[in-house]
Amino acid sequence: MQKSKVDVILGIQWGDEGKGKIVDVLAPGYDIVARFQGGPNAGHTIKFGGMTHVLHTIPSGIFHEGKMNVIGNGVLIDACIVCDEIANLRKVGVEARDRMKISDKANLILPTHRLMDAALEQKKGSRKIGSTVKGIGPAYTDKVARCGLRMGDILEPSFPEKYEALKADHLQALRNLGFDVESARIDGKALAEYERAWMDGIAELRSFDILPTEFYLNQALAEGKTVLAEGAQGSLLDVDFGSYPFVTSSSTVTAGVCVGLGIPPSAIGKVYGVFKAYCTRVGSGPFPTELHDATGEELRANGHEFGATTGRPRRTGWLDLPALRYTLMINGITDLVVMKADVMDGFDTVKVAVSYMLDGKKMEHYPSAEQAERVVPEYRELPGWKTSVCEARSYEELPAAFRSYLDFICQETGSQVKVVSVGPDREETIIRSL
Ligand code: IMP
Predict the structure, then answer these.
(1) Contact, 338 vs 420, CB < 8 A?
(2) C-alpha of residue 134 to centroid of ligand 1, in Å
(3) Residues 366-405: pLDDT tens digits?
(4) Atom of ligand 1 nearest to the CA of 41
(5) Is 64 annotated as catalytic?
(6) Mean pLDDT score of the chain, rounded to an integer?
(7) Do 323 and 419 lie in a common domain?
């Protein structure tokens, strides 16, 4: 029986909400930080001491001495990318090997998964998902097709043989798709070159603590240790509840924590829902409150809305309350965390979508992906705060108009704002004692 709980941090929009910063800020209050899904499609940015760090696979608790970090069974690992992260951490004096455990059941992204991702996107033409092309879809496909390779496999003598067999299947599939493997590049490298770096990465990973982390985590909970589960992407990109097929291939919602870490639902404690004061989306798919005007440009420029993983410009739009109500319901959010309100500091007024109309009727439920392409949002226009929120270090110091804006969100969602981020740095965070 657990003596303590797993608290969860999730993005409740389309990803890029700023989860990494919040995990880093809250990590000191926990013993263990664990990633449970996704892979290097994520880009979690953390700023402190005048430096910026971007993590893709490694949990955002890694910068805190004395904390353990777990890459859970639900996560996908690209040996090249994770080893780049490990090397970057080493440069700033953090030895990931001492602070991290990796599940033996986490699946591997092979170099040929990356090519498969590119080939499948190419084939989709104008219906492409806008994938980060990190091999996520093909690697999860192999996982559920029961032919993937897992971290535990790299410790077995049969690994080279299993690797070659899966690679041969991928190359055959690529030929069938008419994909030109010879001229393809993976992060600027030809397949053979990327593969060499990947194998070096596998060799390095063998020296890490690879174990059935479900035992480690459940034991820790039984001993009263606290765990913070770190989500990647966002609920609106969830493979079931997102705008399918324009989604990622994992369960980004609270339920994903149980299967992605091997912990029971009864162990879930608080669920923090992280959202930006406006919306962004990278890649294709419906975005009801999207702005195609100067205000959208202003949000992109002020918010530096360019992907941490791909550098792509993000689509921008107003805050969408029907979407938030939906993701609050699916996830059982207990506390809201609002990010990047400072981006709208100069705005005279701020709009918020409060409901959707479809074919002249108000929608009761959150729309399907097809309906979401056609809905017309109804907006409430609220006064802007017209002053910088960055200096505030307590809730009371925040401008009154901004607090009214937060009150409106709480009232409309039936939830409470626990954390307000007023800038990118660790220090620029207000945690309310509610
Ligand atoms: P994939 O997960 O790389 O296959 O991408 C599927 C969709 O999810 C695309 O629209 C991506 O832009 C989006 N996506 C994947 N990871 C992230 C993320 O960490 N932040 C924001 N969007 C993401």
Answers:
(1) yes
(2) 9
(3) 999 899 999 999 999 999 999 999 999 999 999 999 999 9
(4) 16
(5) no
(6) 96
(7) yes
Whichever domain contains 250, its CATH number is 3.40.440.10
Query: Residue 14: pLDDT above 80?
Result: yes
The answer to whether residues 387 and 375 belong to one domain is yes
Separation CA 10–CA 72 (nearest Å): 16
Pair 196, 281 in one domain = no
Helix (H, G, I), strand (E, B) or coil at 276: strand
pLDDT exceeds 80 at position 208: yes
| Contact yes or no for 38/233 (Cβ under 8 A) | yes
pLDDT of 308 above 80: no
Pocket test for ligand 1, best of 10, 19, 41 (most atoms within 8 A of CB): 41
**Over residues 181-187, mean pLDDT:** 97
Burial class (CB in 10 A: 0-12, 13-18, 19+), 238: buried
User: Rounded to an integer, what distance in angstroms lies between the CA atom of residue 229 and that of residue 260?
Assistant: 10
- Cα(147) to centroid of ligand 1, in Å? 23
- Please report, rounded to a whole number, the percentage of residues in the chain having pLDDT higher than 90: 93
Percent of the chain past pLDDT 70, that is, above it, reads 100
Beta bridge partners of 77: 108
Is 44 tagged catalytic? yes
Which are the contacts of 231, defined by CB distance < 8 A and separation ≥ 6? 8, 9, 10, 11, 19, 36, 37, 38, 252, 256, 257
Q: Which one is catalytic: 7, 24, 31, 44?
A: 44
Q: Is the pLDDT of residue 194 over 90?
A: yes
For residue 126, the model assigns a pLDDT of 86
Residue 37 tokens read as: 């899904």
Both 301 and 386 in one domain: the answer is yes
CA 308 to ligand 1 center in whole angstroms: 11
